Amino acid sequence: MTVGGRCRLRDLGVRVGRLPTGPLNAITDVPGVRVGHCTVSWGGPGLPPGSGPARTGVTAIFPHAGDVWHERVVAGAFAANGVGEVVGISAIREWGLIETPVMLTSSQSVGLVYDATVRWLLARAPEAGRREDVVMPVVGECDDSFLNDARGLHVLPEHVQAALDSASDGPVAEGCVGAGTGMCCFDFKGGIGTSSRVVSAHGRRFTLGVLAMTNFGERHRLMVAGVPVGEEIADLMPVDHNEGSCIVVLATDAPLTARQCERLAKRCALGLAVTGSYASDGSGEIMVAFSTGNRLPRAADGDLVTLRTVANDQMQELFEAAVDATAESVYNSLTMAETTVGRDGNTAYALPLERLVEALRRHGREARLPGGPAGAAGRG
Length: 380
Description:
The chain is of the alpha+beta class. It has one domain: L-amino peptidase D-ALA esterase/amidase (4-Layer Sandwich). Helix content is 22%, strand content 27%. The chain has helices spanning 89-95, 110-122, 157-165, 229-232, 258-275, 316-336, 353-362; strands at 2-3, 6-7, 34-42, 54-62, 71-82, 86-87, 97-98, 102-106, 138-142, 184-185, 188-189, 191-201, 204-215, 245-252, 284-297, 340-341, 347-348. Strands 7-5-15-14-13-12 form a six-stranded mixed sheet. It has a five-stranded mixed sheet with strand order 3-4-8-9-6. Helix 2 crosses helix 3 (157-165) and helix 5 crosses helix 6. The protein starts with a strand and ends in an 18-residue tail after the last helix. 54% of the residues are buried. The model is unreliable at 376-380 (pLDDT under 50).
């Protein structure tokens, strides 16, 4: 998929790992999973603090196509470094469940997104807060204040509703979109990226998908296909930018326990490491994983709840898929993002695809620009 001269990593002829992807190579390859974005981007440099420009947004991830409030999914979480926030993570760790859409946004908009998501769900669950539990959404954040006028609190309730209402199971927009609008990654423009893998366990096929909001990494650490791309492309650096965080959401239709979901979440951290992360002191690198293969109804009928599960010794490909899909999600967030100018003229440059291809070719990797011959660096 090529958009405005940008493309996904595989459009450059670069593969991550050996496992096949789903048809969309996106988290929405997991049956029922839906993603919606609302991008909030307006204004230019020179506005006083609190007045813009806005370079922010909201992303919503629905675990399945049904009523997630009444049909909860099994989940787990892991923090490689916890200087960040995913509201609701303590309930995930205690109950091993997710019962709302997973929301992503800017650090200073967490409260508003939480409140607006509660209101959206209350309108659809009339017994919530009465005969049923109160609503406690899952909301993850990264700091987009290098580009976004964070003092302006530009995310509004209608933006949250738009992200929720627009969720679909089709292709997922990547790069400077939704919650990723103002994010930076390895000192390039980052944002939203996604990828998927098809795996086998117990003689059956399952799908695993990842969506990442990337806002982390030091330039010299960036590795693509084992190539030190960050050292090869050492210019186009932002001024006075500190690396931040990453939120990773993993979905699979493989039936898992909460403990197994946590184990998958840990492998997402290894995927970040493949790209160059070392979970630095100030970074919030937090992973949430859920299984749509086990759902727990809110209304218990008094009987024991029966869960199916993949045997631990059958999880090898799931682990491999989590690592590879996470790494490719990061790369897609970089290759799809566009150069963005934000507050005070701060600029995050897009990873130059031609130079990426040339760097990979110099190190013996097969890569090409879209439309170019296989293995050729090309000029575009």
